[in-house]
Amino acid sequence: MTAAGSGLAAPALTLLNRTRLDAAALYFVSYDGLVNNNSFQKNGLFTYRGHQYAAWYTATRHAVIARRPLGGASWSTFALSHTLKSDDSHNVISMGVSKLDGRLHLNLDSHSDGFFYVKSIAGLLDNPTSTAWTSAVLGPVQTSLDGLALTSQFTYPQFIATPEGRLQLSYRAGVSGNGRNALAEYDGSRWTALGEWTSSTGTYASAHGSSLARNMYLHGIDYDLNGRLHAFFTWREQSASVMCDSGGITNHDTGYVHSTDRGRTWRNDAGAVVGKTGSSDTVAVTGGGLVVDSLDPDHSLMNQESQATDSAGLPHAIISYVPGRFGQCTTNYVADRTAHGRAFHVRKNSAGTWQKTEIPVALASSQRTKLVLDRYDNAYAVFPHGRIAGASKASGYTDWTPLYDGADLNAFGEVVIDETRVRADDVLSFMYQEKSSGTTPSALNVIDFALPA
Q1: Closest among 418, 411, 451 to 33, alpha carbons compared
Q2: Which of 32, 270, 364, 414 is deepest in the core (most CB within 10 A)?
Q3: How far, in Å, CA of 428 to CA of 12, rounded?
């Protein structure tokens, strides 16, 4: 099937298979989410050199990792010695690959406190068929990066591979409403702290009041095919005085920055320098040219949603909030987002103009939606509960259509996308956990859909 008049394949899904990772994975609801399926859990599921890897906490609270050949029907699993320290859904497991030495890296179990770090033997991911998949392939559980201490208030680890094969770790230092984003880098032999690149200071004023502190929440941080580093974000203010009602959420505005020197210098959309990592000149709420979609704090804008870059290196994002047609003041962000929230596709077109399209699918959830682009740059929005809609590049992303309703998944909410597999073999693969109640463990699964190839 092709998009009308374009000669390009239209968005499409073909179910390939479903596999079970764990019949009884750890289950508790915290911050309206699950620790095994959170939007900011970058690379909780990923593909590298013909194998797919997954990480989660099982009912015994042990961190576990698994692998399978792509398309395989079963997973090989082993447990780490580490057990989850608290019932906090922020304390996710994130994984990364240092391509220079073929090591697997894991950062886990942190929320504004200390983190835990594990790395594998060299070459593990380069030679998966010749290396036994047992706990012997991992080094000890550490509370630093091989001796490099970063911060005592650490959250949101996200590993990203540079075009040269170095591994970077993005994280937040500080707390919600008063934190800074920072980077560290592994060169195949040692970790180096590059430093903080955002500011928590400055004055933000709304129609209701002002705030003197905040943090930048990333929708993602990703290199495109040309080596440019992209980051969409929202600001979370510390002071509730900026809102029309204390039951809302202080997130406001969708911003965008990029880096052409591996995260050392940050530029706004116009190319002006707005911050330098590890210096006193960092990206601040008072910086110019940062906002690409303006929104006040009264609409329960969600943080840490999703982003991607297309084959031309153009940035795309999914954001969600309660549109003004449902009122100009949310009073309960969970209830209002569930009743009236909508997702929007924000993108920069080839002419350099920012465009936004509402996706005509009700959120029916307070949670986050994930964005995937296929080889033809068609867009797919993976909603809470595993529902999927698609839009074609040929239409200018105006033809959003439901493709899969997710009803047979019994999924709790957010899903973890394998961002790397789409480019590896044109498969949309995501991890989801089935609904449960209280703290009763539930099944954790992976589902695979073929995309147009």
Answers
A1: 411
A2: 414
A3: 11
Q: For residue 161, how many other CB atoms are within 10 A of its CB?
A: 20
pTM of the predicted model as reported, rounded to 2 decimal places: 0.96
CB 187 within 8 A of CB 166: yes
Q: What is the distance between the alpha carbons of residues 93 and 35, in angstroms, rounded to a whole number?
A: 8
**pLDDT grade, residue 6 (50/70/90)?**
low
Report whether 437 contacts 22 (CB < 8 A).
Answer: no
* Residues 375, 453 contacting (CB under 8 angstroms): yes
What's the CA gap between 211 and 94, in Å, rounded? 32
CB 397 within 8 A of CB 345: yes
How far is Cα 232 from Cα 301, in angstroms, rounded to an integer? 13
Inter-residue contact 193 to 212 (CB < 8 Å): no
pLDDT tens-place string over residues 225-262: 999 999 999 999 999 999 999 999 999 999 999 999 99
Domain spans of the chain, in order of start: 9-39+45-70+373-391+402-453, 92-193, 197-366
